[in-house]
Amino acid sequence: MTIYLVLVGALVAESAFFFDSERFKKGQKFIFIVMVLLLGFIAGARSLDVGHDTLTYYGIFKDISKYEFGTLFAPNKYSEMEQGYVWFCWLFSRISNNFSHFLLITSLFEYSAVGYWVWKNSKRPFLSLTIFTCMFYTFFLTGIRQSIALAILLLAYENVKKKQLIRFAIKVLIAFMFHQTALIFLVVYILSVVIKTGRKFFIGSLIALPVLYLTRNNIFFFLIDFFERYSDYEILEHGEATTYTLLLLFIAFVSVIFKGLFPSNEDQDKEYNYFTCLIIVALLIMPFVGLNGAIMRVAMYFSIFLCLLMVQLYDRINEPGFKFIVVGLTIVLLIALFTNELNGSAYLYEFIGWDKIFA
């Protein structure tokens, strides 16, 4: 656990030091890149025992690396798996059959994509990166396929901003080839077109949320037929789903309240409303999480925008003292949640060793 807390501590210190982003802009970018690469390296240089599914992915990689080219087109053990990931494993194994290399390269790609997305869209990138680390770092140690898909989708967000539908759709399709759930990211583009104030969306969501809770069983078993391959994912503990749901609900309400208390210019309001609506979409998905753990992964495509929304929440506060208190309390809460998430043998960090990396 120590290495994770050191990383978060460094990010918190940098968030404070570079809070005046204009003043330290040049030095900020270099250190930000170093921190992003460090996060990627630590994740990629982990042993097979770190992360719930790392050992499973090791077996998959080793199996696929033994395939002949023709085997990829014939029925095989991984015919049901997303073929983009299967081909990626096979192509990578032609270069290196070392899974440590595979893990390191994919992790560096994932965190580079996250870093690029944060840098392009957050006025306080270190703070956004701190939020990401506390809320999503452990998942990136586990869900390799979806982490790759999510990294591709975060890069596609630039196409959302520029309204480049074709380029966005192509990247979603590529991500879909790594994890089928990536298809839902199309909602991100749709909302960017239709959302203006977000008021009607918020009111409609408040009405829809209890309805979804009451009808979630029927809706879930209807949808699972499409995503049948995820039907055996573990059921989450009720407390885990409840905590995450309450967090999203709280932030959604606070963002609406802050909009009234701390008005901003029209352009900032539009982006603020948009991020709030994305969090509300994640909230609408949460009633289904208790039925199947895979649904949390679907919500993540939208909840990751907390990294951007929460910074905008802070920046709407004009009083420096109040802003300092809100940011400080948020960081304490996030570190507490992160620490709680790390309380398990799956996240006891162990370095793979330089011999494996340079093998």
Task: Summarize the entry for a quick read.
The protein is an all-alpha fold. 71% of the residues lie in helices and 0% in strands. The protein is globular.
Report on the structure:
- With 359 residues, the chain is mostly helical.
- It has two domains: 1-142 and 342-359, no CATH class; 195-316, no CATH class.
- Helix content is 71%, strand content 0%.
- It contains 16 helices and no strands.
- Helix 1 runs antiparallel to helix 6 (125-140), helix 2 runs antiparallel to helix 5 (99-121) and helix 5 (99-121) packs parallel to helix 7.
- The radius of gyration is 21 Å and the shape is globular.
- Mean pLDDT is 84; it is low at 233-239.
Features:
single chain; 359 residues; mainly alpha; 2 domains; 16 helices; 71% helix; globular
- Structural class, please? mainly alpha
Computed CA radius of gyration, to the nearest angstrom: 21 Å
Order of helices and strands: HHHHHHHHHHHHHHHH
Average the pLDDT over all residues and give the rounded result: 84
Percentage of residues assigned to helices: over 70%
Into how many domains do the coordinates divide? 2
Major pleated sheet: none
Classify the beta-strand content into a percent band.
Answer: under 5%
Uncertain segments are: 233-239
- The helix count comes to 16
- Give the overall shape: globular
- What's the total count of β strands? 0
Distance between the first and last residues' Cα:
27 Å
